[in-house]
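Q: Is it fine to ask for two folds in a single conversation?
A: Yes, each is treated on its own. Send the first.
Q: Here.
A: Result:
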Amino acid sequence: MKNSIVFLLIFTISFANANNIKFKDINGFYEDDLNLAFKVFKKSCIKSSKKELFKEVCENVKYTNDAEEFFTNNFTVKRLVPPKENPILITGYYEPLLKGSRVKTQTYKYPIYKTPKDLITIKNKNEYEHFKKYKYKAKLVDGKYVPYDTREEIKKRDDLEVICYTNSLVDLFILQVQGSGRVLLENDEIINVSYSNQNGRKYSSIGKKLVADGYISKDKISLQSIKKYLKENPNRINEVFNYNESYVFFKETNNRATGSLNVPLVSKRNIAVDRKYIPLGSPVFIQTTNPKTKESIKKLVIAADTGGAIKGKNRIDYFYGFGKEAQELAGLMKEEGKVYILVPKT
């Protein structure tokens, strides 16, 4: 109960500068497919109902099939207002498909690693507060905790357990950024790999680095332009990737892309957020723009994931799903938007 009280207090503080608003004032809310959003929310309740904040509303889903009535009766709306100098930026992510092999070959030589056995999550956080910037990830060296290996150091090791190998270092890096994906093996079997752990190092955007160094202009930066640059400059791949010391480890699963809430993600109905500002499980109405067609996106989505780059109250990552179109749109997506959080009534 103590943890629940602390959670609710942090949640209240997070919205100290947010504005109350009525459902009728949200442009596009009643025109959305609220029934689909309701189905996704019900699935999220499998996990979020364990939190005090969602316990009652997740119980209430059992007693109605009217999505509009459910959301309007059980939630109040607050518009998330970011600092004036930092408007809300909505990017996109997707579930990539890689090619792979269970055995290492000349073609398939880049390992997708399981969580290392020597990776430790420090439990006594008060005693090791200086490890906070490493997300309390460490390993033991001569009986003492030290920060876990960087990306560059991990790539030099040959003692870690491998799920499979892929044929592209670029695709492997993208998989780590997206957090989950599928691998088509040589025998035509497709396996699912999802986020298992991380080395505790801070995520650093290689896109921002390439812009800062003058290799790609700010208005042209995208997943597509980054891949093009790396294809044209293969000798710089390791240098560019090592700038981001963060390294993600995976596990093989039976499910397709699964977010931090540990429920399968639904294309264009889930988002990744900074949970300090938007609790996982929250219904969130977003207003933004399709990066390719420039058509409006006005949808009620469910916060079910997090990401190393998604930090602060002005960042949202929109899940586009699986396939070529999802990859294209996610790679191009960097649109400003408005965000409305549906907060359970208490």
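Q: Second one now.
A: Result:
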Amino acid sequence: MPRITRSTLESPSTSAEPAPPGPASPAVSTSRRTRRRASARFAAVLGIAALLVSACSSEGGRADAGGDDAERAGGVDTEERTVYLITHAVEGDTFWDYVRSGAEEAAAKDNINLVYNSHREGAQQAELIQSAIDAGADGIAVTMAKPDAMTPAVQRAIDAGVPVVSLNAGEEEAFDAGAFAHFGQNESVAGEAVGDYLDEQGIEHPICVIQEQGHVGLESRCDGIREVLPDTENLYVEGSDMTQVASTVRAKVDSAGDADAIIGLGGPFTMTILDEVQSSGSEISVGSFDLNADIAQAIVDEEILFAVDQQPWLQGYLAVDSLWLHFHGAFEPGGGLPVLTGPNIVDAENAEAVLEFAGAGLR
């Protein structure tokens, strides 16, 4: 089976979006082929999820939901339900604006009152889940970046009769806790895809910048790169303090030795990394996990080599829409397997096509 390239997870049968074909790649080891076959099997579920895609605040959802107004409710005539979306967003990380926007779109269509809350720490996320249970939530969509702290709260929700789906992080842990669906990218597979891409560019010693130590998804990304490129080095920064991110990255770039690439794990962090690389005069290549309009433009301008788009808007949309489907049919998208929304590698070959949608807040 070929290695994961730009096209492997983007064929019309396995993704919600078409993409240009990628180049053929040589064979890989048996263990990696096994992982890729499993990933492709998971990705096939996204073809089913794509068929599903046809005002929210921390204090409430749409101001006047109007459950009997078919036009305002996107055409559905089902009763209004209340869904809580609880994430581990860090203030200033624009990634979560995409997730929230997609969730709002689904909520408006499905006559759902969407309540959004977030906290970067797992213990506080668990408290938010309990608050949602106490408030009578009909459903909960949650990220599982800190699964040890989150699992008991998720299980309490399910024991209380509240269906739970997960998105973005902690797919295995979410299923173990009892979530009936997960929407996101497999971070280990995404990391290996980046490793393969960097290997094709002749890069041997990348630095992987982790903005939240202990986040299982971020660690898995860097581990995936290291699976292909053993000399991958982790650099930990404090994601809630961009000044500290800049100074730590600058110090590393100035003493990088034989490092030939530095990879950010989120759009705003990658842009800060790019600023530090450019101001230092270094020729080290810059890459990114996650995409926004600035990243897409920087790729077009040949300042950033690539970005991995996990399509966060789609994650938010599918998470909320799946709960509506569960309310009205007991549907469980994915059949017990993750519904993959990435990885989708964006580089100079396809960045122009993506830029328009990134500017519109969809990519």
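Q: Anything structural to flag on that second result?
A: Two points. The CA atoms of residues 87 and 143 lie 5 Å apart. The mean pLDDT is 83.
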